[in-house]
Structure formats: structure tokens, C-alpha cells
Structure to design on (427 residues):
């Protein structure tokens, strides 16, 4: 074989190898693009599934309200169920709410158990979470029907447990709110490249504090018109003290966290105080609600307030459920393209606790409650729950502000004691 023929064959072999490599590269790129498309579709389905579960949760709220206010008159056949007692008394009113809540809890508990360790979009558990709605509809119907065959004593036990679950839900919601406030404050933190953000952050700080102060004035004029309203005066005054404390601590030179986060938190605790004021009337003869407030309690305002409260419950459960990152112990976790967009287990855990929470709101945290129609979360117990939630929120936020200083002082004290020990040992 001549040298030219060898050269020609080598050139041809090299060309074939290059063509093969090109084909392989194209195939690899196509495969990666196909996977990327699959992940994008799976991610969209997963994100869309959140809203379906939110709608289910909203429907459960309305069903619980229906069983409490209108079920006995509209569903007379319920009394044929043995555990419902005569005229179905044990399946309506407070016990009816607890049975619906228990059914909702069972459904989301099943979803929690079946999706808790899902990590990747290609897993079967991801397909179960985002699809198979026909099967999930059957599970939901079975979950809703089962509690109406449970004895009333078991439902009462669930009600006692639901108080604890509702408290845990409030705690998770509080952590989520504080994390959001912290994120928003960091986003608007001024630097040399974001002067526009700095101005907007200052404007928002001013607006939140003005709103908080106006809220305090409104509470005094509307819910404490006389000195006989001692408890109302105490609640409102203590809220004003917490507001001032958060402002002073935020502006302290060692903390220096600005006014935006404390302003948002101040508005939040004033809102909680207002909710507590609306939950009770202290006492009836003291007339601790102004005439304008009494006139405002017309039927249509009551209905609108009730509907807003229900949607607020759903939004609280939804926003907390998708905020699993606020509850991660490890912040250095690397996210990959095929990771699920949010924690399914945590999402369903929050909704299962939310089922307990809406039950407590509908019965005002009282298992023997006989609430009036179109009312939600009223009474002394509800007021104290909101007040304690307010104080707890302010305490956690203040500790979040001062904890870095406390830790730093401990480190410095430890360093100083170590140095003294070394000096004493040295000759």
C-alpha cells in the first residue's frame, strides 16, 4: 500500500470519527434538552397542584361552616346514622365542624405519608402528588365520610388534639411571617448601587409606622372609650409598648436593623390586637365598643367579614405550606434542575394542621361552642389566643434582633475568661 493510500484511509477514518462524535454530541444535547423539557413540565404540574389542594382546603372550610350553621335543617337524613344521636345533634354544630375537620385532616395525612420523602421530579411519588386526581377524589370522599361513623367520644378527643395542632399551625405561620419580614428588609437594605430601593424602603417604613400608630389610636377610640374597659386598655397599651420597644431596639447602634422590618412587625401585632378586640365584648354593661362600631355590625358587613376570614385561613395555610425553606436547618443545600420545587411533605403537614386550625376558629376554641350564624373566631378564648399570639410574635421578633448581640457578648466573655486563665498560669 502506498503512502498516499494510507494517508487517504487515515483521513477518511478521522472524518468518520469526527462525524460519529458530532452525532453523539447532537444526541446528548437532544437528550438533555428533552430531560429539561420533561423537568419543566413536571415542575409546572407540581406548582399547579398546590392550587388544587388549596381549592380542596377552601371547600372543606365551607363544608364545615355549612354543617355548623345549616346542616341540621338541610340534611335531616343524617339522624339515621347511629352515632349522630337524636335529630343528628352529634353531627352538626361544633361536633359537625370537628367531623369535617377530621376528614380533611385524614386526607392530608394520607397525602403526607405518601409524599413525605419525595426529592426528584422523576419519582413516582411526584407523579402521585401532581396527578391521579380521580384516585385522590375517591380518597377525599372516603376521608370525609369516615368521621361521620366515628363515636362522638373519639371526635371529642380529636377536638382536644386539634387545639394543640392549631397552636402548632399558628407557630409555623408566625415563623413564616417573620422570615418574610426579614427577607423584605434585606431586599430593601440600602447600598451604593440601590439608592432607589433605599428611598422606597424608607417610604414603606414610614407608611407602616404611621399605619400602626393610627391603628393604636383607632383601638383606643373604638374599643376603650371609658376607663371601665380596663382589660381593653391593658391590651391596647401593652401593644403600644411593644411597638415602641421594637422601634427603639431596631434603631439601637448595636442592632442597627432599620425601621422597615420593625414597622411591618408593628403593623402585624396591631392587626392581631384588633382581631382580639373584635373577638369579645368586655363586659356587656361597660359598653366598651363605640356606637359607630355597633352600627357597623350589620348583616352584610358580618357576611363579608366572615368570607374574608375564610379566605385568610386558606391563604395562611397556602403561604406557610410552600415556605418550607424557612424551616430548613441547613442553608447550604444545593438545588438541582430535577429537584421538586417545594417540600411536599411539609406542604401537606401544614394543611393537615390547618384543618385543625379552621375547626378551632369555627367553634371559637370551645368544643361545646354553639356559635351564632356567620360568626367565626369570637369569644374570650379566641381573644386570648390572639393576644398570646401577638405577645409571642413580638417576643420572637425582639429576640431575633438582640440574639446576635447576646451571642457576641458570650463569645467575648468566654474569650476574656480564657485569657485570664492563661495569664494566671503564665509565670
Amino acid at each position: 500500500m502506498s503512502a498516499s493510500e494510507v494517508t487517504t484511509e487515515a483521513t477518511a477514518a478521522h472524518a468518520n470519527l469526527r462525524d460519529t462524535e458530532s452525532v453523539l454530541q447532537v444526541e446528548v444535547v437532544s437528550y438533555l434538552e428533552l430531560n429539561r423539557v420533561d423537568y419543566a413540565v413536571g415542575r409546572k404540574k407540581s406548582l399547579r397542584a398546590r392550587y388544587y389542594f388549596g381549592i380542596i382546603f377552601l371547600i372543606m372550610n365551607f363544608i364545615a361552616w355549612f354543617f355548623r350553621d345549616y346542616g341540621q335543617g338541610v340534611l335531616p337524613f343524617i339522624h339515621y346514622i347511629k352515632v349522630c344521636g337524636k335529630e343528628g345533634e352529634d353531627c352538626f354544630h361544633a361536633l359537625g365542624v370537628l367531623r369535617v375537620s377530621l376528614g380533611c385532616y385524614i386526607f392530608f395525612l394520607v397525602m403526607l405519608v405518601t409524599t413525605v420523602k419525595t426529592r426528584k421530579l422523576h419519582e413516582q411519588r411526584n407523579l402521585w402528588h401532581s396527578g391521579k386526581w380521580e384516585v385522590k377524589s375517591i380518597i377525599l370522599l372516603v376521608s370525609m365520610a369516615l368521621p361521620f361513623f366515628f363515636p362522638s367520644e373519639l371526635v371529642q378527643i380529636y377536638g382536644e388534639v386539634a387545639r394543640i395542632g392549631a397552636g402548632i399551625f399558628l407557630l409555623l405561620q408566625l415563623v413564616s411571617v417573620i422570615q418574610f419580614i426579614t427577607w423584605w428588609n434585606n431586599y430593601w437594605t440600602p447600598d451604593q448601587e440601590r439608592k432607589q430601593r433605599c428611598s422606597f424602603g424608607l417610604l414603606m417604613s414610614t407608611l407602616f409606622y404611621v399605619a400602626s400608630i393610627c391603628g393604636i389610636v383607632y383601638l383606643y377610640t373604638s374599643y376603650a372609650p371609658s376607663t371601665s374597659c380596663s382589660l381593653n386598655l391593658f391590651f391596647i397599651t401593652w401593644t403600644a409598648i411593644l411597638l415602641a420597644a421594637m422601634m427603639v431596639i431596631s434603631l439601637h447602634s448595636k442592632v442597627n436593623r432599620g425601621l422597615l422590618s420593625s414597622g411591618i412587625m408593628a403593623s402585624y401585632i396591631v392587626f392581631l390586637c384588633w382581631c382580639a378586640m373584635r373577638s369579645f365584648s368586655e363586659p356587656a354593661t361597660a359598653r366598651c365598643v363605640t356606637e359607630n362600631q355597633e352600627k357597623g355590625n350589620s348583616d352584610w358587613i358580618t357576611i363579608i367579614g366572615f368570607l374574608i376570614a375564610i379566605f385568610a385561613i386558606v391563604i395562611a395555610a397556602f403561604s406557610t405550606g410552600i415556605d418550607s425553606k424557612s424551616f430548613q436547618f441547613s442553608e447550604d443545600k444545593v438545588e438541582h434542575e430535577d429537584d421538586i420545587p417545594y417540600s411536599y411533605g411539609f406542604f401537606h403537614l401544614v394543611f393537615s394542621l390547618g384543618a385543625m386550625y379552621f375547626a378551632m376558629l369555627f367553634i371559637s376554641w370551645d368544643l361545646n361552642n354553639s356559635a351564632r350564624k356567620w360568626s367565626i373566631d369570637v369569644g374570650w378564648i379566641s381573644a386570648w389566643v390572639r393576644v398570646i399570639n401577638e405577645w409571642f410574635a413580638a417576643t420572637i421578633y425582639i429576640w431575633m434582633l438582640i440574639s446576635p448581640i447576646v451571642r457576641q457578648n458570650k463569645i467575648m466573655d468566654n474569650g476574656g475568661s480564657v485569657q485570664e486563665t492563661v495569664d494566671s498560669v503564665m509565670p
